[in-house]
């Protein structure tokens, strides 16, 4: 393409019909990602804290495996939601979570190896080192494509305009990094490397999951007690759920964007939506971990009730003291007879019981109201973000292809 990018922007670009929705802009991507991350980061930190500090003795064997997965999922959310917020241009892109893949393999392998009669368990430390080095290397092969990033980015952007003549205005205003333009390496990356990474991760996870199912349900060991087998089955079920739910949440948008790309109906808004959903992966993982495992559910319940009591009980106590003071002042004006003292004592006991019961009701209702009101505010704010650009903030952001 002989015409420069500046001349293309001046001559041809005004004739283009671009996606001008708020979600398609960099503000829609950055503001939405940042606002979501502000809400979900405390939950992710609480989940990590619960795993490290509040894991019961019956779950000690899976404590650090859960921590590793949760740590990398949280780091993925922080990277996508805060640090980079990648603005990806059309038509397609491949996501490869190198460490995240290996952490999931580690989670399922440890569950499978904890079963005593599993003949496929990795028993020696040397075998485990070789196994994980191989998986890490297999998940990192896509990094070879980084060695073929075009050195002449201006020419690369010109070549990109041939296949995508009407990108969003951010293509011309932001410092865009064109990843690949060589058709050979594009085919190698998307047709060979990406499928190999996915097949390697899916194959290892499926193998360890099948081994666990076989030795826990079809051929259970007679050496261990029934209670231990029940715990192993419960932990395995929790691991499957906490892996499956975030994978499905992230997989559905990726399937949608792949089908839209194949039918040439993809838009920048859909691409940005995929990035936002990828940035929520760790949040979904955190919620799943808390809901699946009883110990963490109980810890969350105690934490929320503790917050409610700290904020509401002092005010109820103050009201109780004021009522008692009023009653004492009234009694001082009365005659000092035993009947009045008896009435005062009985009324104070009844008042304390009434205020305490009302305080419990207030705590429960306030918790429901706070959660519901927070959810409503969050939905309304997101609606405002999508419908109109109401913020005027300067947010640093990297743009990638």
UniProtKB/TrEMBL annotation:
The chain crosses the membrane at residues 29-52, 64-82, 88-108, 129-149, 184-215, 235-257, 269-292. Coiled coil: none annotated. The keyword DNA repair does not apply. Keywords: Membrane, Transmembrane, Transmembrane helix. PANTHER family: SERPENTINE RECEPTOR (PTHR22941), SERPENTINE RECEPTOR, CLASS H-RELATED (PTHR22941:SF51). This is Serpentine Receptor, class H. It comes from Caenorhabditis remanei.
């Amino acid at each position: 393409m002989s015409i420069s990018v500046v001349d293309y922007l001046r001559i041809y670009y005004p004739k283009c019909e671009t996606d001008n929705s708020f979600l398609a802009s960099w503000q829609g991507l950055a503001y939405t990602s940042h606002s979501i991350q502000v809400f979900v980061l405390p939950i992710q930190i609480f989940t990590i804290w619960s795993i490290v500090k509040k894991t019961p003795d019956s779950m000690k064997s899976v404590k650090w495996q859960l921590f590793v997965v949760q740590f990398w999922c949280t780091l993925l959310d922080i990277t996508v939601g805060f640090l980079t917020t990648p603005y990806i241009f059309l038509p397609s892109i491949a996501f490869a979570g190198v460490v995240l893949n290996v952490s999931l393999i580690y989670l399922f392998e440890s569950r499978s190896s904890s079963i005593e009669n599993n003949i496929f368990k990795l028993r020696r430390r040397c075998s485990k080192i070789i196994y994980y080095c191989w998986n890490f290397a297999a998940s990192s092969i896509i990094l070879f494509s980084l060695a073929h990033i075009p050195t002449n980015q201006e020419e690369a952007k010109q070549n990109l305009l041939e296949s995508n003549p009407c990108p969003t205005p951010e293509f011309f205003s932001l410092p865009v990094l064109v990843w690949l333009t060589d058709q050979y390496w594009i085919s190698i990356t998307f047709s060979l490397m990406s499928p190999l990474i996915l097949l390697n991760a899916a194959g290892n996870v499926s193998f360890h999951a099948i081994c666990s199912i076989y030795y826990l349900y079809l051929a259970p060991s007679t050496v261990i007690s029934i209670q231990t087998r029940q715990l192993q089955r419960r932990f395995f079920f929790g691991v499957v759920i906490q892996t499956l739910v975030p994978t499905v949440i992230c997989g559905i948008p990726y399937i949608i964007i792949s089908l839209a790309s194949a039918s040439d109906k993809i838009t920048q808004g859909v691409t940005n939506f995929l990035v936002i959903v990828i940035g929520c992966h760790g949040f979904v993982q955190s919620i799943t971990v808390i809901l699946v495992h009883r110990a963490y559910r109980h810890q969350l319940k105690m934490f929320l009730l503790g917050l409610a009591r700290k904020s509401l009980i002092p005010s109820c106590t103050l009201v109780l003291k004021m009522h008692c003071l009023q009653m004492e002042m009234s009694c001082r004006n009365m005659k000092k007879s035993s009947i009045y003292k008896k009435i005062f004592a009985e009324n104070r006991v009844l008042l304390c019981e009434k205020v305490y019961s009302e305080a419990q009701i207030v705590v429960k209702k306030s918790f429901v109201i706070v959660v519901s009101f927070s959810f409503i505010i969050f939905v309304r704010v997101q609606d405002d973000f999508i419908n109109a650009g109401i913020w005027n903030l300067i947010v640093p952001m990297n743009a990638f292809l």
